C-alpha cells in the first residue's frame, strides 16, 4: 500500500512538473514593450521581432521615441527591450544607464555596419580609393561632396577642413537622404564623378554599385566607420521573462538581410510588421536558429507554432 502511495506521489510530482514546463510565462510577460528611434534599420528589425512575438502568442508593442526617452523608459520599467544600440554612435546615450546598471546588453545582433565616404565603382577603379586621393581629381568632382540633412554632415566638413587632405575650397552639398541618393543615381547613370556619405545597412548598397573609401579613420573610425548593433533590455527582464529573453538572445541579423528589408520600408512603403513578415517568409531558414529553445507564450514548441501561424 505504501509503495502504491509512493508511486502515486511520484506520478503526481511528474505531472505537476510537466504542467509547469508547458505552462509558459507569467501573464506579465505577455505584452512585450519595445521602441525604436525612427531609423529604418531598427524599424525593420523591430518589425521582425514583433511578427515573431505575435506568432508566439505574445502582444508586441513598439513606439517611435527619442533615444533618451527609450533609455529612460527602460530604466523606469516602462519599456522592456530595444534592438538598436549602435556602438560607437550611441555610446554617449547609453553610458549613464550602463553605469547605474538599469539597462543590460543581451547580445550583438548585427556586425559589419559601417559609415564613411563612398564613390561609384568606376570612380574607385579610376584611382579614388582613399580620402587622400580625392584632391587629385578635384576638377572631376567639381570640388563637391554630397551629404544628407543639414546638421548631419559635420564629419564631411571636418575632412574638408583637414589640411592634410588638400580639400581647400571644396563644399558639402546638403539636402536629405533621399535627395543625396537621387543625385547619386543620376551621376552614376551619367558616369560622372561623385563622392557621398554612405552607410550599411541601407538599400543603397543593393541599389548602386559603389565602393567605400579607406583613409577616413580619423573622422569615422577604423574599418570604414565600423559599428555593431546590440539588443538591450531593462535590468532583470531576461530573467523575469526567460522565453522572450531566449528569443532576444537568438535574434541576429546581417547587413545583406537588413539592406533588403529596409528596402521594403523605403522603396515599397511597407509598415515595419509588413516588411518583417515578408522578410521572414522569404528567409524561412532563419527560423530554426531564431526559435531554438523558444516556446509559445503558453509553453508549446515555438518553431512549429510560428510556421503554422504564418502559413510557412
Radius of gyration: 24 Å
The CATH superfamily of the largest domain turns out to be Periplasmic binding protein-like II
CATH architecture assignment of the largest domain: 3-Layer(aba) Sandwich
Count of DSSP H/I helices:
17
Pfam families: OpuAC (PF04069)
Keywords: Signal
Protein name: Choline ABC transporter periplasmic binding protein
GO molecular function: choline binding; transmembrane transporter activity
Give a description of the structure.
One of its GO terms (molecular function) is transmembrane transporter activity. Residues 1-23 form the signal peptide. This is Choline ABC transporter periplasmic binding protein. Keywords: Signal. The structure is a single chain. This protein folds into 2 domains: 28-113 and 226-309, Periplasmic binding protein-like II (D-Maltodextrin-Binding Protein, domain 2); 114-225, Glycine betaine-binding periplasmic protein, domain 2 (D-Maltodextrin-Binding Protein, domain 2), CATH 3.40.190. The radius of gyration is 24 Å and the shape is elongated. It has 312 residues and is of the alpha/beta class. Strand 5 (144-146), helix 7 (154-161) and strand 6 form a beta-alpha-beta unit. The protein has helices at residues 2-22, 40-55, 67-75, 91-100, 121-125, 138-141, 154-161, 177-189, 204-207, 217-220, 222-225, 237-240, 242-250, 255-266, 272-282, 287-290, 302-309; strands at residues 31-36, 59-64, 81-87, 103-120, 144-146, 171-173, 196-200, 210-212, 227-234. Helix 2 (40-55) crosses helix 15. Strands 3, 4, 7, 8 and 9 form a 5-stranded antiparallel β-sheet that branches. Strands 1-2 form a two-stranded parallel ribbon. Strands 5-6 form a two-stranded parallel ribbon.
Amino acid at each position: 500500500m505504501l509503495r502504491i502511495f509512493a508511486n502515486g506521489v511520484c506520478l503526481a510530482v511528474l505531472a505537476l512538473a510537466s504542467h509547469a514546463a508547458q505552462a509558459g510565462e507569467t501573464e506579465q510577460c505577455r505584452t512585450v514593450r519595445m521602441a525604436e528611434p525612427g531609423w529604418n534599420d531598427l524599424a525593420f528589425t523591430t518589425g521582425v521581432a514583433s511578427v515573431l512575438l505575435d506568432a508566439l502568442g505574445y502582444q508586441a508593442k513598439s513606439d517611435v521615441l527619442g533615444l533618451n526617452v527609450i533609455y529612460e523608459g527602460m530604466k523606469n520599467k516602462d519599456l522592456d527591450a530595444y534592438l538598436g544600440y549602435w556602438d560607437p554612435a550611441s555610446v554617449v546615450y547609453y553610458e549613464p544607464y550602463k553605469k547605474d546598471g538599469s539597462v543590460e546588453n543581451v547580445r550583438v545582433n548585427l556586425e559589419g555596419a559601417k559609415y564613411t565616404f563612398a564613390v561609384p565603382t568606376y570612380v574607385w577603379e579610376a584611382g579614388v580609393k582613399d580620402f587622400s586621393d580625392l584632391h587629385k581629381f578635384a576638377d572631376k568632382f567639381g570640388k563637391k561632396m554630397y551629404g544628407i540633412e543639414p546638421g548631419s554632415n559635420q564629419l564631411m566638413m571636418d575632412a574638408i577642413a583637414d589640411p592634410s587632405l588638400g580639400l581647400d575650397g571644396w563644399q558639402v552639398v546638403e539636402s536629405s537622404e533621399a535627395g543625396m541618393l537621387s543625385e547619386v543615381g543620376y551621376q552614376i547613370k551619367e558616369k560622372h564623378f561623385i563622392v557621398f556619405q554612405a552607410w550599411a545597412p541601407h538599400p543603397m548598397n543593393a541599389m548602386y554599385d559603389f565602393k567605400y573609401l579607406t583613409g577616413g579613420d580619423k573622422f569615422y573610425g577604423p574599418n570604414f566607420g565600423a559599428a555593431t548593433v546590440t539588443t538591450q533590455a531593462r535590468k532583470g527582464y531576461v530573467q523575469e521573462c526567460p522565453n522572450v529573453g531566449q528569443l532576444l538572445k537568438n535574434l541576429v541579423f546581417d547587413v545583406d538581410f537588413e539592406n533588403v528589408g529596409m528596402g521594403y520600408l523605403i522603396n515599397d512603403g511597407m509598415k515595419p510588421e509588413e516588411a518583417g513578415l515578408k522578410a521572414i517568409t522569404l528567409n524561412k531558414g532563419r527560423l530554426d536558429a531564431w526559435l531554438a529553445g523558444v516556446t509559445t507564450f503558453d509553453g508549446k514548441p515555438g518553431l512549429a507554432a510560428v510556421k503554422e501561424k504564418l502559413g510557412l
